[in-house]
């Protein structure tokens, strides 16, 4: 067996794998249970404030007074700079354990809920130098522990569910309708049991018609959240597998492909919205794991076109059993499935057989043989189990951190608390073809809906027009195998590449037509040529 860190190909026995790994930081001081990338290219990550002492202290004078006799001088949140690998401790006052988040239009991380005194808190972190957490102790109407968030077309954020909470609400509280708690019986109907719900952290995806797809346990609905009405119920996902916490699978909305029609006013057809859900385990797996029986996780994946007239699940199988896997949309439109275990469930010490190999899923290869749809990639050397995270960076790498299946920080357990951060380099980094580079976005980095835009870029050699496209990716908030608000659009661009006077290339196209396709806020813009993405450029889209 040969395992070499940072090589382009790993050899395990006779098997070779694509992709490579690099350790970025042995310890950032906290275990990265929650993670988000801000538009200033900084990562904000945090665990929970009741884990006890972390491995990094707050700046002098910033200790948090817990009561009249004790103070907490340890940081439970940090800012990480992927470029310099610098770590800055942050001050978080309330318990963020198993909380949720999303971004506001101006790029502020809006983070909600948590445990005990943190369960009704809404926190804000702005992407600016030396900023720290701001907290609204009464930002939520209902306690939200294991809830999910999604940005909506009007820029508001919907918060759905949570332990023993069969409701949803909106944040921030700016109008009368935001101060109403809306019932959602579907969340109670899909609960496996009170102790093992199998429907926490429900999967949320904004459909192209502006309604919300909600998936819990083994089934989904389309919710008109404005009128508090379920407008359609979808078939149960086949296989008898639970997909949500603690039987944790993962979900993505597959790329939304915007194609221009031929008429001059740039009308585009509304694309279908298709969801992919992978992994999870048997409904009773958590109960069995708690008595020492570790059931193999599921290999199954299902695709569902939620906008179809008569939607049906299309099932397929991953090459590896996986529970607690993260699914990350790459700039190319492919899906990276990473982290997790082959047996057991989410929870304290109830998983076994860490899955070290990521898997690449190519959505557009679904009609060919399975070996081209799924590709097993190079393994990490570090198990990433319960409370691990993964996040796309603007340079195309995937940041991986966390893993703490222990009640407190424990470095001698079977699977110790993990404080490190790694970068995974997908296979497009190891290809010999040249990488495009975006030089400019016109008319600028702030764009409006339907607006004509152009990308000037450089590329060594000739452009193959049929292998060129542009994607924009919404920044997500990742925790517990769910990347909230993750969204990738393939933009509508003209079938032509021009040469500029400086010798660069130019392509022209259009921003998305509606906020239902692309809710307002910041996105990473990528140009992809021959399956190799440029570095991302941050743009902001909204009604100007």
From TrEMBL:
Residues 33-428 form the Glyoxal oxidase N-terminal domain. It comes from the Eukaryota. Keywords: Signal. It holds the Pfam family GO-like_E_set. Residues 435-541 form the Galactose oxidase-like Early set domain. Transmembrane segments: none annotated. This is Galactose oxidase-like Early set domain-containing protein.
């Amino acid at each position: 067996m040969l395992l070499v860190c940072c090589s382009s190909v790993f050899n395990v026995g006779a098997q070779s794998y694509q992709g490579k790994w690099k350790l970025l930081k042995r310890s950032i001081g906290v275990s990265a249970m929650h993670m988000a990338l801000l538009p200033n290219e900084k990562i904000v990550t945090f665990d929970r404030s009741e884990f006890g002492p972390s491995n990094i202290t707050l700046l002098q004078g910033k200790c948090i007074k817990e009561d009249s006799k004790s103070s907490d001088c340890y940081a439970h949140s940090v800012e990480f700079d992927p470029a310099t690998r610098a770590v800055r401790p942050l001050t978080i006052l309330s318990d963020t354990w198993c909380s949720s988040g999303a971004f506001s239009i101006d790029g502020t991380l809006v983070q909600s809920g948590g445990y005990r005194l943190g369960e009704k808190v809404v926190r804000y972190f702005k992407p600016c130098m030396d900023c720290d957490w701001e907290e609204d102790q009464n930002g939520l109407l209902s306690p939200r522990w294991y809830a999910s968030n999604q940005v909506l077309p009007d820029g508001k954020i919907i918060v759905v569910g949570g332990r023993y909470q069969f409701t949803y609400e909106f944040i921030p509280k700016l109008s009368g309708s935001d101060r109403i708690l809306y019932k959602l019986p579907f969340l109670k109907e899909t609960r496996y049991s009170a102790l093992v719900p199998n429907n926490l952290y429900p999967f949320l995806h904004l459909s192209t018609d502006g309604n919300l797809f909600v998936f819990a346990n083994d089934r989904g609905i389309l919710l008109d959240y404005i009128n508090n009405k379920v407008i359609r119920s979808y078939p149960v996902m086949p296989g008898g597998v639970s997909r949500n916490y603690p039987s944790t699978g993962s979900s993505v909305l597959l790329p939304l492909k915007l194609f221009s029609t031929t008429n001059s006013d740039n009308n585009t057809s509304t694309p279908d919205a298709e969801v992919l859900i992978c992994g999870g385990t048997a409904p009773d797996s958590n109960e069995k794991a708690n008595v020492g029986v570790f059931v193999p996780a599921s290999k199954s994946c299902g695709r569902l076109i939620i906008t179809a007239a008569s939607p049906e699940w299309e099932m397929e199988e991953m090459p590896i059993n996986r529970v607690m896997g993260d699914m990350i949309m790459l700039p190319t439109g492919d899906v990276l499935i990473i982290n997790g275990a082959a047996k057991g469930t989410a929870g304290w010490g109830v998983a076994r057989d860490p899955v070290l190999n990521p898997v690449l899923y190519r959505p557009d290869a679904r009609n060919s043989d399975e070996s081209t749809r799924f590709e097993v990639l190079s393994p990490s050397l570090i198990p990433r189990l319960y409370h691990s995270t993964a996040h796309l960076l603007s340079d195309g790498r995937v940041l991986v951190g966390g893993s703490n299946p222990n009640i407190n920080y424990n470095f001698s357990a079977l699977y110790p608390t993990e404080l490190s951060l790694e970068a995974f380099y997908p296979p497009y980094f190891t290809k010999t073809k040249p990488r495009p580079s975006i030089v400019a976005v016109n008319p600028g980095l702030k764009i409006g809906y339907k607006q004509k835009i152009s990308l000037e870029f450089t590329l060594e050699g000739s452009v193959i027009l049929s292998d060129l496209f542009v994607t924009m990716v919404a920044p997500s908030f990742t925790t517990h195998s769910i990347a909230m608000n993750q969204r990738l659009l393939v933009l509508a661009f003209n079938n032509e590449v021009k040469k500029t006077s400086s010798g660069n290339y130019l392509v022209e196209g259009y921003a998305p037509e509606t906020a239902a396709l692309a809710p307002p806020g910041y996105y990473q813009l990528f140009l992809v040529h021959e399956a190799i993405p440029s570095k991302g450029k941050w743009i902001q889209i909204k009604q100007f």
